[in-house]
Specification:
By secondary structure, the protein is an alpha/beta fold. It has helices at about 30-45, 60-75, 90-95, 130-140, 145, 165-175, 200-205, 230-240, 270-280, 300-305, 320-330, 350-365, 370-375, 400-415, 440-460, and strands at about 15, 20-25, 50-55, 80-85, 100-105, 115-120, 160, 185-190, 210-215, 245-250, 255-260, 265, 290-295, 310-315, 330-335, 340, 380-390, 420-425, 430-440. It folds into three domains: about 15-165, Alpha-D-Glucose-1,6-Bisphosphate, Chain A, domain 3 (3-Layer(aba) Sandwich); about 185-375, Alpha-D-Glucose-1,6-Bisphosphate, subunit A, domain 3 (Alpha-D-Glucose-1,6-Bisphosphate, Chain A, domain 3, 3-Layer(aba) Sandwich); about 380-460, 2-Layer Sandwich (TATA-Binding Protein), CATH 3.30.310. The chain is built from 15 helices and 19 strands.
């Protein structure tokens, strides 16, 4: 029996990005592709046991989940559908139920018209590059002879298991080890997305006095002018309600950004510093090491080193942070975007869990989040500009362009130890990201503007 051939345009490009498969629904991401993706995922997730599938609130979610489930069933896998849930619920339930793996249908912080798939193995960890390449090879027709079955005699079945979300919910409540938030005024921005499945209930059960923004699942509005990518509504609500703190989540709730009572942003760097300092003070941070990425602020790094700490940087992506934490035995790591991994909580980025930890640590230490932030660090001014890479520009290699390399060298030579320049291609969107960071904001603005101009001219010139 032969499956449909590889997706159009798939022969010469990677299907997996830095965080699974992602694209515009109906163009790069189609039900036909996900049917095959489910089938081949069923062949690389070889352990006995069911496959768990969760999804965020996007309107395309039901369609794509059904396609994945059909493909997995054709591969002989039993499928458990848990419905709308945070991404970290999937790896949590994999480990708790002995499942053979799981898939999350979500495009994270992307707009509503996009969607994607994140794939987890039997350990609740995103599949490694070897499994990704195996699936890609099958999708492109390169491995049909070795993986394609001769018949479909072994059918799988699909079951609705929405009740399993309660286990994840209970695990989050248990993660704070009996602490509470009695009477603490907190604002939650649930982003019309995955966090609506249980976020308000969890904070309410711990006694918080809640104001909830964007608290119903709405696939047409997910990530639009709300959540962790747009903190304006959260900041306004915190100030208006005189709340102690506010937390905003992205579409699939694997990351979180906060706002203190003064309206100041608490990003992933602040969370790492504050949570890390708490662990350090308790002697629970091996070698005083934190794992961060190349995007983390230089001011954070300098302040952490002043505490006697070690900050180790990786490439962007929670999988890179995870790998570094496993290799070094680090207890805490994460990204500036608010994707935080804790060794004592399963090494899975979880926005709700991070928010709970931040809130209950403040309560335990009798500090407001604003006071806690005052004890952290002064961030260096940092500016990030995205340059679109259209399909006609994909053949141009910005990384080897001498004009661009010369401009970067000139900027770095001027900034010296007081700043940084970082160019990187997004793994989830057709963008080249230009970041400049310096002690003085005027230097940031000048060099960022100069580099964007040089890069744009270099890319778009014939």
């Amino acid at each position: 029996m032969h499956l449909v051939g590889p997706p159009q345009g798939a022969k010469n490009k990677r299907i997996f990005g830095t965080d699974g498969v992602r694209g515009h629904v109906g163009k790069g991401l189609t039900p036909a592709l996900l049917l095959q993706l489910g089938f081949w995922s069923g062949h690389v997730l070889t352990k006995e046991g069911p496959i768990i599938i969760g999804q965020d609130s996007r309107e395309s979610g039901d369609m794509l989940t059904s396609a994945l489930a059909a493909g997995l069933s054709a591969a002989g896998k039993e499928v458990w559908l848990i419905g709308i849930c945070p991404t970290p619920a999937v790896p949590y339930l994999i480990k708790n139920s002995g499942a053979s793996g799981g898939l999350m249908v979500s495009a994270s912080h992307n707009p509503p018209e996009d969607n994607g798939v994140k794939i987890f193995d039997e350990n609740g960890v995103k599949i490694d590059s070897g499994k990704q390449l195996q699936i890609e090879g099958s999708l492109k027709g390169e491995l049909f002879n070795t993986l394609s079955p001769t018949n479909f005699s072994n059918f799988g079945r699909t079951f609705q298991r929405h009740e399993l979300l309660a286990e994840y919910q209970e695990g989050l409540i248990n993660s704070v080890q009996g602490k509470n938030l009695n009477g603490v005024p907190i604002v939650l921005d649930l982003c019309w997305g995955s966090a609506t499945a249980c976020g308000a209930e969890i904070f309410d059960s711990l006694g918080a006095v809640l104001t909830v923004l964007h608290g119903e699942p709405d696939g047409k509005k997910i990530n639009l002018n709300c959540g962790s990518t747009e903190l304006g509504p959260l900041r306004a609500a915190v100030l208006q309600k005189n709340a102690e703190m506010g937390f905003a989540f992205d579409g699939d709730s694997d990351r979180m950004l906060a706002v203190d009572k003064e309206g100041r942003i608490i990003d992933g760097d602040h969370v790492l510093y504050l949570w890390g300092a708490n662990l350090q003070n308790r002697g629970e941070l091996p070698q005083n090491r934190l794992i961060a990425t190349v995007m983390s602020n230089l001011g954070f790094e300098r302040a952490w080193e002043a505490r006697g700490g070690l900050l180790e940087r990786t490439a962007v992506g929670d999988q890179n942070v995870y790998s570094a934490m496993i290799k070094t035995g680090a207890a805490l790591g994460g990204e500036q975007s608010g994707h935080i991994l804790s060794a004592s909580h399963g090494l899975c980025g979880d926005g709700l869990l991070t928010a709970l930890q931040v809130a209950t640590i403040c309560q335990e230490q009798h500090l407001t989040l604003a006071q806690w932030r005052d004890e952290s660090f002064n961030a260096f001014p940092q500016k990030l500009v995205n340059i679109s890479i259209t399909s006609s520009l994909e053949h141009k290699d910005w990384n080897t362009c001498e004009t661009i390399k010369e401009a970067v060298f000139k900027a770095e030579s001027s900034l010296k130890e007081n700043g940084r320049v970082l160019l990187r291609k997004s793994g989830t969107e057709p963008l080249l990201r230009v970041m400049v960071e310096a002690r003085e904001e005027s230097d940031v603005n000048f060099w960022c503007s100069h580099l964007v101009k040089v890069i744009t001219q270099s890319l778009y010139s014939d």
